[in-house]
Amino acid sequence: MVDRLTHVLLGLTFALLGVLVGLGGIGLLAAALYQVLAGMVPPAAAAAILGVLALILMAILFLLARAFTAPRKPAKPSSAGGDDIGTLLALFRDLQPTLRKHAPAVAGGAFAAGVVLGISPRARKALWDLITKTK
């Protein structure tokens, strides 16, 4: 949990740093580079060159931010819940034809359950207690 939070905060830091660099320092450098390019090429071409360079720099900073927010390694499955996953998959395979046959009713039931759980704190607590109850 702390490791994931660290990755998210590092990614946010790099994203904000990218915004600061993009708006502040790059703006000043772009103005200076525009002055140099405007003497060599027409002003519209100078602006286009600067726009492409700014987009490339922002893409690099965006990719850097994504690299730091990506998880380092896949989560290891819990040894205690290994049997539950197989059981749930088998149950889902058995129920899949029935669920597809009655898709509107299933969707309506899921919607109704979502509304009830969204409105009622007691229903959320009861569901949470049911889920976290140990064997």
UniProtKB/TrEMBL annotation:
<keyword id="KW-0472">Membrane</keyword>
<feature type="transmembrane region" description="Helical">
    <location>
        <begin position="43"/>
        <end position="64"/>
    </location>
</feature>
<feature type="transmembrane region" description="Helical">
    <location>
        <begin position="12"/>
        <end position="37"/>
    </location>
</feature>
<keyword id="KW-1133">Transmembrane helix</keyword>
<keyword id="KW-0812">Transmembrane</keyword>
<protein>
    <recommendedName>
        <fullName>Holin-X, holin superfamily III</fullName>
    </recommendedName>
</protein>
